[in-house]
Design brief:
binds magnesium ion, globular, alpha/beta, four-stranded antiparallel sheet, Rossmann fold, six-stranded mixed sheet, 238 residues, 26% strand, binds adenosine-5'-triphosphate
């Protein structure tokens, strides 16, 4: 359903991503892992056409994904968001409804309901009138999660959503990922947490410029693959 074919990206002549190929079907919850600089964020941005690819195509139901971006929800890595931008929490979430609403039109009753449901789902309805910059890191992360829910997308990308969030927020985020999965959405999540929480993913994609391995979690997650992805070479004995 979602197909990535031969996707490569280079920055000023240096490859960040080489010939990425994979297919995803509805209901897959994919954890994307790899060391810093492996190209995880680059892969997502290239899939969304936010940066140019050197080669490759990404299709959704047979059409270029870049023509279907209304079906895609994306939360960027925290470091790439401007937290001083003066905007209220409820309006950050309402941004998800810009395409269905039209840029300068008043949001429909349905859009307002969707925003309300999303804010309640992530348990920050009480904070709706605060400025985004006045929220804690974990609360901000919930706002962006709510925005993706209000968008009613089919494909979801989250780039390191668990950075700086406590266990309660992490649990809420995973609960929502599972709900999306049950609704037959495709969910891709970049993470560095190789601990217990990895059991939440149906599939794992290990990346280090190229795909080291991709498949069902139980089948591909082993020490050998992790060593290759993270370049852990066994030290010679002294
Ligand atoms: N705009 C850019 N211009 C030049 N090089 C870039 C740019 N963005 C990323 N890179 C380089 O491309 C490589 C992949 O970066 P990317 O941000 O995709 O890694 P990542 O896997 O998301 O890492 P992290 O875990 O640190 O977020 C790195 O070597 C990085 O320095
Ligand atoms: Mg990154």
């Amino acid at each position: 359903m979602l197909q990535v074919k031969n996707l490569s990206v280079s920055y000023r002549g240096n490859y960040a991503l080489r010939e990425i190929n994979f297919n995803l079907e509805p209901g897959q919850l994919v954890g994307i892992f790899g060391p810093n600089g492996a190209g995880k964020s680059t892969m997502i941005k290239a899939m969304l056409d936010l940066i140019p690819a050197t080669s490759g195509v990404v299709t959704f139901k047979g059409n270029p994904l870049k023509q279907k971006l209304d079906k895609v929800a994306y939360v960027a890595q925290r470091s790439q968001i401007d937290w001083d931008y003066p905007i209220k929490v409820k309006n950050v979430v309402m941004m998800a409804r810009t395409i269905p609403t039209g840029l300068f039109r008043y949001p429909s009753r349905q859009s307002q309901e969707l925003v309300k449901m999303a804010l309640k789902r992530v348990e920050i309805w009480d904070l709706r009138n605060r400025q985004i910059g006045e929220l804690s890191g974990g609360q901000q992360q919930r706002v962006f999660l709510a925005r993706t829910l209000a968008q009613q997308a089919e494909i979801f990308f989250f780039d390191e959503p668990f950075v700086g969030v406590d266990r309660k927020t992490e649990n809420i985020i995973f609960e929502i990922f599972h709900e999306l999965q049950e609704q037959g959405k495709i969910v891709m999540v970049v993470s560095h947490d190789l601990g217990e929480s990895i059991k939440n993913y149906t599939d794992i994609l290990l990346l280090n410029q190229k795909i080291i391995t991709f498949g069902h979690r139980e089948e591909v997650l082993n020490q050998r693959n992790l060593d290759i992805a993270y370049e852990n070479h066994i030290l010679p004995e002294v």
